[in-house]
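Feature request disguised as a bug report, sorry. It would help if multi-protein outputs had a clear separator. Right now it looks like this:
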Amino acid sequence: MENKAVFFDRDGTLNVDIHYLHRPEDFIWIPGAKEAIRHVNDRGYLAILVTNQSGVARGYYPESDVQHVYDWMNSELQKVGAHLDALYYCPHHPEGTVPAYTKACSCRKPATGLIDAACARFHIDRAKSYFVGDSDGDMLCAKNAGLKGLRYEGGSLLDLVQKI
């Protein structure tokens, strides 16, 4: 059986983009973001976070910070009866300063490596799935991955996601 999913970008879509967010205390939810995730949960979609995290490659924070923020997000979401099913992130950047992460890769959006990995793991039907993001790169990733793209441009994220 194939699953359906909503892939969410993080910075600028679920939280206010402050550039290189890596601490829960700096996280500010976008209006309606928690409710949007609950909406997709309640309708039988997997809610999957896909995010570029070039701050790892640039040496601004370790990968463990990305996981820590994700875990914190899920603890906050649980308070409203919501959850994210998985985290996929790209720690690479061609202009990084940490050699292990300084490279071009197939997982950095708009490339589709993060989506491809999630679809393989969760048996996701791309024709029934969506990508919610705030940038041209997110929309290009959605197109390249065979997903319907929904562009967040402000206001309540729930209002946008209810169009699904």
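(second protein starts here, but nothing in the output says so)
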Amino acid sequence: MTDAWPTEIKVHKDKSALTIAFEDGANFTLSAEYLRVESPSAEVQGHSPADRQLVSGKREVRLQEVIPVGNYAVRLIFDDGHSTGIYTWDTFHQLGREHETRWPRYLQELAAKNLSRDLPGTVRRH
């Protein structure tokens, strides 16, 4: 636990990312896709590391809503219907700090399973 405390949370205008600044000076911009595939929900993380689900096809996912949960977290609602992840301030801080290792690992896992960031049959937005 870092006891991270946010000073600002802002969803980007196009809802493709969230920027969060912390009292310790850390400032992270996290894409909706990254937040979705790293959701702390049991649906994604499982109940043990062996149960973790690899989520594909989320390149175009957007944030639909950010709902406060007490004074320690928010629930992110995504436009693909996913809404069960509770993102604590520590979770955001950890996702930001570890982005440089988590994201390449995610891309490698997708490639190893011949999965894509795109939904089957979709044309990418530019």
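Even a blank line would do. Unrelated, but nice: The beta strands are 6-11, 17-22, 27-31, 63-69, 73-78, 86-88.
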